[in-house]
UniProtKB/TrEMBL annotation:
Organism, scientific name: Malurus elegans
Location of the protein in the cell: Membrane
Topology with respect to the bilayer: Multi-pass membrane protein
Taxonomy, superkingdom: Eukaryota
Protein name: Golgi apparatus membrane protein TVP23 homolog
Pfam families: DUF846
Bilayer-crossing regions: 30-49, 55-75, 122-143, 149-168
Length: 203
């Protein structure tokens, strides 16, 4: 259900110096890059400061959920496509069956890419870091018995976690699972270290 031509978007730091030098560091979509971080960081800031600014739990909850919803829509429909050439969505076929589609932009015939290294780093940094922060908030609310805040925090975990999962599936391809991706990555790192040690001993 997804494209097999996957563009190599930087999820982990690439070790290929040639490809690294060929990538441009210029931010081509500054507005998209700004809003990729704005809504999710704003939701975290409001959560941290809302009890200092107001005593209304409802106002805080509505504000945070609105920011999280805007972030989910913007990241899923705009910033992922512009910044790293990835997108995911759900579609219903003629038989009424629901399918999840995970796509990556095809590399052009000239081998050019429209995403830059700077945008890729901003995208993945925001996409990975913020859900981790909401997970920390979830444990904090649970252990401090702030039950009313737990529902709000879980909204942050679910909405931002869904985007993280969707874009990782786009990155690795729908036919690959995350376990095989991690195994392959660690295997490459291990072989690289073995070769490096072998060269050191040879000298």
């Amino acid at each position: 259900d997804s494209s097999d031509d996957i563009e190599d978007v930087s999820l982990f730091d690439a070790d290929d110096d040639v490809s690294r030098r060929s990538k441009k560091s210029k931010i081509r979509h500054p507005v998209a890059s700004f809003f990729h971080l704005f809504f999710r960081v704003s939701a975290i800031v409001v959560y941290l400061l809302c009890e200092l600014l107001t005593n209304s739990f409802i106002a805080c909850m509505v504000t945070i959920i609105l920011l999280l919803s805007c972030d989910f829509w913007a990241v899923k429909n705009v910033t992922g496509r512009l910044m790293v050439g990835l997108r995911w969505w759900n579609q219903v076929d003629d038989d009424g069956r629901s399918h999840w589609v995970f796509e990556a932009r095809k590399v052009s015939a000239q081998g050019g890419k429209t995403s830059s290294e700077a945008e890729s780093r901003i995208f993945w940094l925001g996409l990975i870091t913020c859900p981790m922060i909401w997970v920390i908030f979830a444990f904090s609310a649970l252990f401090s018995f702030k039950v009313k805040w737990l529902a709000v925090v879980m909204m942050g975990v679910v909405l931002q976690g869904a985007n993280l999962y969707g874009y990782i599936r786009c990155k690795v391809g729908s036919r690959k699972n995350l376990t095989s991706m991690a195994t392959n990555y660690l295997g490459k790192q291990f072989l690289r270290q073995v070769r490096h040690l072998g060269l050191q001993k040879a000298w």
